[in-house]
Structures are given as structure tokens and as C-alpha cells.
Design brief:
binds pyridoxal-5'-phosphate; 2 domains; 16% strand; Aspartate Aminotransferase, domain 1; Aspartate Aminotransferase, domain 2; 7-stranded mixed beta sheet; alpha/beta; 356 residues
Length: 356
């Protein structure tokens, strides 16, 4: 069973398909690859690997601060969003937490590793997995040290806005928001809590670069928080240089690459419209309106299951995410991400062949 999308090495081994030939709709990664500008910067500056990166990551934090419009002193950088999730949870060491679920599996793993009692707040299928804020707020009591929210949420693609986030912040001790997919939401939806950091001492926002900037291999993520107690604690326990020189260089370049950022947003926006239109023609399929670059779907008849669909597609080198192992989902759910126009067309055609 795959616990994450994008596990191409396992697929290569199990299905004997060379990694390069897999069309990966499971990893939620920007299909544009890296920009020419970034490629040139890396080539021209390869020698950075002969020196340690700046231990304080001053230029990188300045680039992030400009990109997110936040105070550079509120930023912590790390080895992917994964290290930031881990550092925050370890150093907060909550005794009781609520995970808004189904969601990304690492929160549960990390909380369990830190002996935290976990309560799952279930996003209801009947509500199209939209978060019922009033119901959540009623579940928050003095014992709950942490609320974990992925926004937009993986795998449902649903999201809440800043007004709704404020309602949670006003009631809880700490809110951790994983915004790994925030940049994929269209501008009008305004999914981005970084602007709230200045006003709330109990907010920790996590961001990655793997998905939006298409660079999971460099392992660069960051956290934004105003709370000095938790920031000092993390900085005290954190290993130095966990972001290497290449990732440092790439980060500084990428966050300023407005052309790439715009190109990505346009591609995702336009392809999303096309995919929504085509999916609505498949009557045995329900899909959930997404604020991200992936789409959760439910098979509505019993002719096939998510696992059978996965097996059918992988024979054609197409990798989707069988979503049955997410809490509260089952084997009628699958997820796929938006790739190039050509590949999206191919997947839609295959889905129509199998499901219509
Ligand atoms: C919601 C979410 N957060 C974090 C990660 C991991 O991100 P990173 O590669 O930055 O560690 C993933 C990867 O799938 C994810 O889906």
C-alpha cells in the first residue's frame, strides 16, 4: 500500500515500468518542471556546494519575506515542509490535538511519535468535505492544545478563507496550517493565512516548495509564526544547515521568478476549467470542487473500485492516487493532479473509456 503519492521507485519496482515512463498524476507536482532561468542559475553557481550555506539563511528569508509579505524574523526554513511539521510538533509537544480529516498522513504520524492523543474532526462527505466551522468550534475545549488544518486540504481540495480561520484562532490554543498547496488556489479565493501571522500569536503556517515550484528533490520548506517562545525553542533544537547550499540558492531564485509563478497559475487555472467540464460529462463519477492542483473523485457505480481503476491505468503507465487508505474514505475514492494539457486529455479519455 502506498502512503504517499509520487512513490515512483515503488511503482517502478512493483510494476516493472521505468520511472521516466510513468505519467505521475499522484504526486501533485507542477508539470512545468523548472524554469530556464533556474536551470541556468544552478549551472552557473554549482560551486556553492563547496561551501556551507549561511547558517542564518538571511538572503533566503528575505526572499521568502518578500514572496509572502511577512516579517523575515517570523520565518524558519527547513528540509521540506516535512521537517517544519516535525519541528513544530516536537517543540510544541501537544498532549491533545485535533486533526481535520481526511488529510495528509504525516500529521498523525508525527503526533503519535510525540505521544499526543489525536481526535479526528471528520469532514463530512454529505457536506462535500467542506469544513463546518461551527461544529469544529464546538469541539474545541481547554484540553485541546493544537488544531491541525491542511488548507487547501489534501486529498479533498477543500479550503477555508481567512475570516473562517480567525474564528478558529479566537477559540484554540494553537493552530497549525499546512499551506503546501495554497499557491494553487485561484486569486479570488484568497487562501493564504500568512497575512494573519502578525495578529495572532497562536498561528503557525507551514509552506513547501515541492509542489508549486516542482522541486521535491531539493527538500525546501518554511514556517511562519510570530510566537517567540515556540520560534526560540525550535531554533534552539534545530540542526544547523538542514537546508543545503543548492536548496538555498534555488529558493532565493525561485521566490523571485514571477514569470514562472504566473505561468503555473495560468496553466492550473485553465486546465482546471477544462477538467471540470469533462469530468461533469462522466455520469458515474462525482468530483469535488478543488482549491488546489489535484481533484478528489468518487466512483458512483459498483462496476469498478479505486484499486481496480488504479491497476487498469498503471498498465498504461498512468499513475493516479488510490485514495482508499485516507481516513474516512473508501475504495470508491481516487485523486489525480493537474498535469500538461496533453496528459490531462489522455487521462480524461481513459477515465471516460473505463467509467462511461
Ligand atoms: C499537505 C502536504 N504537506 C506536506 C507535504 C510534504 O511536503 P515537502 O515535500 O515540502 O516535505 C505533502 C506531500 O505530499 C503534502 O501533501
Amino acid at each position: 500500500m502506498l502512503n504517499h503519492g509520487g512513490d515512483l521507485d515503488i511503482i517502478e519496482k512493483n510494476y516493472k515500468i521505468a520511472k521516466e515512463n510513468i505519467i505521475d498524476f499522484s504526486g501533485n507536482i507542477n508539470p512545468l518542471g523548472i524554469s530556464n532561468k533556474l536551470e541556468k542559475t544552478i549551472k552557473d553557481n554549482l560551486s556553492v556546494i563547496t561551501t556551507y550555506p549561511d547558517k542564518d539563511y538571511i538572503s533566503l528569508k528575505e526572499a521568502i519575506s518578500k514572496y509572502c509579505n511577512c516579517d523575515k524574523n517570523h520565518i524558519i526554513v527547513g528540509n521540506g515542509a516535512t521537517e517544519i511539521i516535525s519541528l513544530f510538533i516536537k517543540n510544541l509537544s501537544p498532549r491533545n490535538a485535533i486533526i481535520i480529516s481526511p488529510s495528509y498522513s504525516e500529521y498523525e504520524r508525527e503526533l503519535k511519535n510525540n505521544n499526543c492523543n489525536i481526535n479526528f474532526f471528520n469532514l463530512e462527505e454529505d457536506d462535500d468535505f467542506l469544513l463546518n466551522i461551527d461544529k469544529l468550534i464546538n469541539c474545541i475545549n481547554d484540553k485541546i492544545d493544537l488544531i491541525v488544518l491542511c488548507n487547501p486540504n489534501n486529498p479533498t481540495g477543500t479550503a477555508i478563507n481567512n475570516e473562517q480561520i480567525k474564528l478558529i484562532l479566537n477559540k484554540c490554543k494553537f493552530l497549525m496550517i499546512d499551506e503546501t498547496y495554497a499557491e494553487f488556489s485561484s486569486i479570488s479565493e484568497n487562501i493564504c493565512a500568512t497575512s494573519l501571522v502578525n495578529d495572532y500569536d497562536n498561528l503557525f503556517v507551514i509552506r513547501g516548495t515541492s509542489k508549486f515550484f516542482g522541486v521535491p528533490g531539493i527538500r525546501l520548506g518554511y514556517g511562519i509564526c510570530k510566537n517567540k517562545t515556540i520560534l526560540d525553542k525550535i531554533n534552539k533544537h534545530k540542526d544547523p544547515w538542514s537546508v543545503n547550499s543548492i536548496a538555498n540558492l534555488i529558493g532565493i531564485t525561485m521566490f523571485n521568478d514571477n514569470e514562472y509563478i504566473e505561468k503555473t497559475k495560468n496553466l492550473i487555472f485553465n486546465q482546471k476549467l477544462y477538467i471540470f467540464e469533462e469530468l461533469s460529462k462522466i455520469k458515474n463519477l462525482k468530483f469535488y470542487k478543488t482549491n488546489s492542483n489535484f481533484i478528489l473523485c468518487k466512483i458512483l457505480n459498483n462496476k469498478t473500485t479505486s484499486t481496480k481503476l488504479f491497476e487498469n491505468l498503471i498498465k498504461e503507465n498512468i499513475l493516479i492516487r488510490d485514495a482508499k487508505n485516507f481516513p474516512f474514505l473508501n475504495d470508491s475514492f481516487f485523486r489525480f493532479c493537474i498535469l500538461s494539457e496533453k496528459n490531462n486529455k489522455l487521462l480524461i479519455e481513459k477515465l471516460k473509456n473505463i467509467l462511461l
